[in-house]
Amino acid sequence: MVKNLGTQICLKWNRGGWQVINRDYRKPITVPKEKKQKRKKGKTSLTPPTVMAIAPKSTAGFLHLKKLNIPSPSRLSSGKAFVSTKRFDPMATLTTARTLGLADTFSKLKTQGKVALIPYITAGDPDLPTTVEALKVLDLCGADIIELGVPYSDPLADGPVIQAAATRSLARGTNFNAILSMLKEVVPELSCPIALFTYYNPILKRGVEKFMSTVKDVGIHGLVIPDVPLEESEILRREALRNKIELVLLTTPTTPIDRMKAIVEASEGFVYLVSSTGVTGARASVSDRVQTLIGEIKEATTKPVAVGFGISKPEHVKQVAGWGADGVIVGSAMVKLLGEAESPEEGLKALETFTKSLKSALA
Fold this sequence. Notes:
The chain has twelve helices and 16 strands. The chain is of the alpha/beta class. Strand 12, helix 7 and strand 13 (246-251) form a beta-alpha-beta unit. Residues 29-49 are annotated as: Disordered.
């Protein structure tokens, strides 16, 4: 068996050839056996073994197997063959430097005079293979940070669009372990950081320490947990800091000034300003009060401010950026395109077009 623990991918030899195992959301891939070569009389023929490596591919299948060109064994002057003992890592093509974190991404954009585009999608809607492709599409279309929602059965902060997406995802059997496996595979291919949007209960079920170390291991940079009040976030903040995860806290239009100041002081990565009261969801317009709220936060901190909830159109994005926001978060509109499309392909195409229109509005 060939095993790479860094990516949880295994190749197992079966009678029909090599098989990829440990993938609960994908069928095994089989590669035919290599044909044996006959030896010519008087000569020794040494044929190098076929070594299969996992390499990324932008298709619904995620991965394909490719044959590596390995030279034939060399010979010593004595005529005996030897093979180099140099280590071969089949996953070397997926090893990349850790991308910038949330705060560093905002710092970089500030020096360029740009505002961050932060799209949100729900993991597993319509399925995990499509989520992989959606993450790649968002990255290629210029997303600066991506929020990935973990589906939950009781999403109190989410409106009907994202609630429906979570229900569809869970009905398909999406679970946190499958999401982690998917992220471990796709994160090395992305140039922008990912922040997980999750509720507190799934974290408690796993254990705070274990949860933080696990999401760090798959390359997650930030966390947004909408149902944890500041007073109950101490353990989360401590473990997040220990694992170099930026825990983003939220402030709303009804948050008192003194409390808002405490929240922005504790928040890492950026401050998440909820643009309106109530749950997430597309709205016809953005309240003018958001401009005042952005100003109040910026008087209290130098940390970047990103506005979310109700941002659903290019004109919204442009308006909020003009009010001084450092980032704009677009969720329900993205989720609706993917979840309600007639096919995953159509959903991805619509997502690409929409993301480009949002990016253009920020240019």
